[in-house]
Design brief:
Order of helices and strands: EHHHEHEHEH
Distance between the termini: 39 Å
Strand order of the largest sheet: 2-1-3-4
Number of helices: 6
């Protein structure tokens, strides 16, 4: 049985910053998922901020063992109802790993119960 990982990416820097796009031609979240998929026993997929429900549908979260959250510049664009959904999934047993500046993300702050400054 594989560990099912979903990598959430804002997918913003890749489109706004030419240097980032050159370094990560397959996007940052895509690069993370590709690296994880090289590891036996891990099956990684991606979702982005721009997708409906940010890709984090109830069905997607139900089939996710670990959510990796990559965030930096678009924390405010994440819908509160999706934050509720993610937090409920974590409280229900889904693992979550926050990367980069995700300590300012809405799900991280909600789960920590603090502003995380």
């Amino acid at each position: 049985m594989s560990i099912r990982v979903t990598v959430f990416g804002e997918n913003v820097h890749e489109h706004k910053n030419k240097v980032v796009a050159e370094i990560y031609p397959d996007t940052m979240h895509g690069t993370i998922a590709a690296a994880l998929n090289k590891v036996a026993g891990i099956s990684a997929t991606t979702v982005t901020l721009q997708e409906k429900d940010h890709g984090l549908t109830p069905e997607k979260l139900a089939e996710t063992d670990v959510l990796i959250w990559w965030g930096h510049a678009a924390h405010g664009d994440v819908e509160d109802r999706i934050v509720d959904r993610v937090c409920d999934a974590v409280w229900g047993g889904m693992g979550i790993i926050f990367l980069h500046s995700a300590h300012f993300s809405k799900p991280f702050k909600r789960l920590m119960g603090a502003p995380c400054n």
